[in-house]
Amino acid sequence: MKKRKLSFWEIWNMSFGFLGIQFGFALQNANTSRIFETLGADIEDIPILWIAAPVTGLIVQPIIGYFSDRTWHKTLGRRRPYFFFGAIFASIALCMMPNSPTLWIAAGMLWMMDASINITMEPFRAFVGDNLSDEQKTMGFAMQSFFIGIGAVLGSLLPYIFTNWIGLSNTAPEGVIPDSVKWSFYIGAAVFLISVLWTVVRSFEYTPEEMEAFEAQEEEEYSTNHDMNAIKGRLMTYGGSFLALGLAFTAYLVFNELEKELYILAIGLAVTGLLFLFAKVLMNSGTQNGFTEIISDLVNMPKTMQDLAYVQFFSWFSLFSMWIYTTQTVTRHVFGSTDTTSAAYNEGADWVGVIFTVYNAVAALVAFLLPVLAKKYGIKTTHMLALVAGGLGLISIFFIKDQSLLILSMVGVGIAWSSIVSLPYAMLASALPSSKMGYFMGVFNFFIVIPQIVAATILGFMVKNLFQEDPAYALMIGGVSMILAGLLTLRVRTKMA
Fold first, then answer.
1. Which of 157, 245, 341, 352 lies at 20 to 30 Å from 26 by C-alpha?
2. For residue 238, what are the CA distances in angstroms to 274, 276, 282, 296?
């Protein structure tokens, strides 16, 4: 039994919800640092405040993926219940975020907002893998990339539109979020909910019986590599290594009295090691449950996924450095202000929204070109070239003093962004068993989240202690990281051309 070929409009409908998801995500990315600074955050503290977002994804996405693989509702199906409820909570969080009275409440709202976005977003990746054949998966993820670009364009540009076209105030007293930002989040909440509901209502899902027929051969191929003794050995090796490294790193930080944010990385390593060792103990005792299955599959990933992990790590480390530090770099280097109540600072912050709009617009335009290039030159070569373009774009920001030239930098970033949110998922989906599509897509998020945690824990330290609090150097590091990710793409083992 084969999956039927879907029409353009069927793929359009099943991807439309990403318009709202990325609308909200763009508002978060472009304005969260601004909100934190307005509420009194110091520049070196901003990365640690951002830590809520990646930590939430690390926890939420594999759990949602695991349960969505096992869900079937007679009306909403397998993935759509998670779209629906995630969108409701995300819309509530978007309305609350710009009304945060204090810095720590804003950090809590970021946590809630990102958790809700993750609940909605993770099943969308598996949705494409469920419904499309290998021949159409690149097109399916390219369609998601298109809506990601369009949603991000609108979300990033809204504060600028409200300020310059509608006339809402772009400044406010100290500690108060401007009206232009508040209304942008309110509109984002409405767009998020409506677009996701469109996909819920206008899309279909294969029944469990149909999915079982698709999965039979794939499950047989996957199970040949499911050696439990080998998995237990990996759990012991990885668990012991992570635990020892985490404890040693923690001791080093305590002895040298280094920055508090570094403890997150150290303790995270130790906790990961303990989880691996605990899973091995349970498996040795004959216990099999959701926890042991999640952990054992984590160390038994398909080879394509293992290779893509390195590519994703350096790609998303780069992106996170850009999201954290672009506002600070542009306001300081180009607009010459660090005063969050000044017109110059807020003009620079709005310009960040404009240039983020550029890279997302480029991503939307490039989205449908990527499948053509991948078919002609190969998916790995196409992704490599896109990442190199993005890396060079980020590096160029370091040297720019004219705000208009930043647009050229963002063209390269837009090409990379379009590829990052589509081509790795196409390579991955073709290597995954359908019965674990949601779970492995959630685990794949680890290699988006972990580099963000690393960036949030070390970039603040580096900017403060190595770069004299000049955030432009963080973008330089991000550019080099993205070029490295492009080169690592060439070693990915995939059955796709």
1. 341
2. 10, 7, 16, 12
What string of DSSP letters covers 388-414?
HHHHHHHHHHTT--SGGGHHHHHHHHH
Query: What tens digit of pLDDT does each residue of 282-311 get?
Result: 999 888 877 888 788 888 888 899 999 999
Listed in sequence order, the DSSP H helices in 50-165 are: 52-69, 80-96, 103-131, 134-161
Q: What whole-number distance in Å separates Cα of residue 296 and Cα of residue 276?
A: 8
Q: What is the DSSP letter of 45?
A: G
**CA–CA dist 136, 397 (Å, integer):** 37
Q: What is the DSSP letter of 44?
A: G
Crossing angle of helices 343-367 and 134-161, rounded to 10°: 160
pTM of the model: 0.78
> Rounded to whole angstroms, how far apart are CA atoms 322 and 459?
11
- Would you place residue 396 in the very low, low, confident or very high pLDDT band (cuts 50, 70, 90)? very high
Note the maximum CA span of the chain.
66
Structure tokens belonging to residue 494: 């995939």
456, 325 Cβ separation under 8 angstroms: no
**What b-and-e string marks burial along 247-286, b requiring 16 or more CB atoms within 10 Å of the CB?**
eebbeebeeeeebebbebbbebbbebbebbbebbebbeee
Cα gap 467→476, rounded to integer Å:
11
Distances (CA, A) of 246 to 53, 237, 253: 22, 14, 11
Tokens representing 235 are: 């759990």
The Cα 296–Cα 307 span in angstroms is 18
Q: What is the pLDDT averaged over residues 93-111? A: 87
Q: What is the percentage of the chain residues whose pLDDT exceeds 70?
A: 94
- First-residue to last-residue Cα distance in the chain: 24
The pLDDT tens digits of the residues spanning 129-146 come to 888 887 888 888 889 889
Q: Could you say which DSSP state residue 432 is in?
A: S
Q: Which of 439, 368, 387 is nearest to 141 (CA)?
A: 368
What number is the average pLDDT over the span 448-460? 80
Q: What is the 3-state secondary structure (H, E, C) of 216-242?
A: HHHHHHHHCCCCHHHHHHHHHHHHHHH
